[in-house]
Amino acid sequence: MALYNIERSGVLRPIILGLLAALFFATTFVLNRGMELSGGSWIWSASLRFIFMVPFLLVIVIRRNNLKPLLELMKEKPWEWVLWSTVGFGLFYAPLCFATVFSPGWLVAGTWQFTIIAGSLLAPLFYETIHTKEGSIKIRGKIPLKGLLFSLIILLGIGCMQLEQAESLTTRDFWLGIIPVVIASFAYPLGNRKMMVIANGRLDVFQRVLGMTLASMPLWLVLSVYGVIEVGMPSASQTFQSLIVAISSGVIATALFFKATDMVKDNMQRLASVEATQSIEVLFALMGEIIFLSLAFPSPLSWLGIVLVIIGMILHSYLSHVGVKANSNVNLQPKKARI
């Protein structure tokens, strides 16, 4: 009966797509950890993914006849594209790959959920559009204090997961497994939101991802040169696994997730349900490492942390969209300009 009601609500298919996206996103953490354990360098895990993404995204964008508008838009502000793409993609993915040197993939995936908190803290740097009876106005974003209360649940969960890890690592290695992920958690929403402002609704998701990949390519090429000097060329195995990551996470997961959110974009409750599916990344990554990397089962404390992270993400997602719905119904009077 419950499944029937979900089907009638029209949210079952988007949720399934969201779960599939989380599954493909989780392969990133599992394969990156596997490459590290087999002797591969995080340098190649990071750079090869984005290098391999280019031809696939090019095919998609060209087949949709959207390449020319993208290139024209990139010519308007080329240095801003390079800067914020490097932040959004470079300072996001390179630190995540570096963190897998010191932490298992499922733990990196769990700590990565800190990005929800980071995104909330970055709100004052951007403006949001409020639709009123008098029209649309832009106001500076505010840190959602109520949402941060639920974010404390996520932080508590991350702390529980990291506590077990702290017992088996030196202080240096422990922090090197956390700090890069925190940096990535701020860089990803910052870079992507800046690029969304620059694009101003003129690009679809594949155009924007391709544009940011191309604009961040100087970083990946420099990192590749450093990789050749520091560790030599990547092995055939690491090259193949990086290709899988590029396809599964960079193309398939992105397409599935944005398709799911697009299907429910006009219903805030359903949108929250779809976004909450991404909390399952932690479980998928953990299952993948247990099956393919023979990882031992985490302790009960770590399981408690995983559950808290998932609950915190779900509550945060629902509360944020309730707030959006409430704001959209508020009748705000524009302030008169001071003379």
From TrEMBL:
Keywords: Membrane, Transmembrane, Transmembrane helix. Pfam families: EmrE. The lineage of its organism: Bacteria, Bacillati, Bacillota, Bacilli, Bacillales. This is Drug/metabolite transporter (DMT)-like permease. It comes from the Bacteria. The chain crosses the membrane at residues 12-30, 42-61, 81-101, 107-127, 148-166, 172-188, 209-228, 240-258, 279-297, 303-319. InterPro entries: EmrE. The keyword Secreted does not apply. It comes from Anoxybacillus andreesenii. The keyword Transferase does not apply.
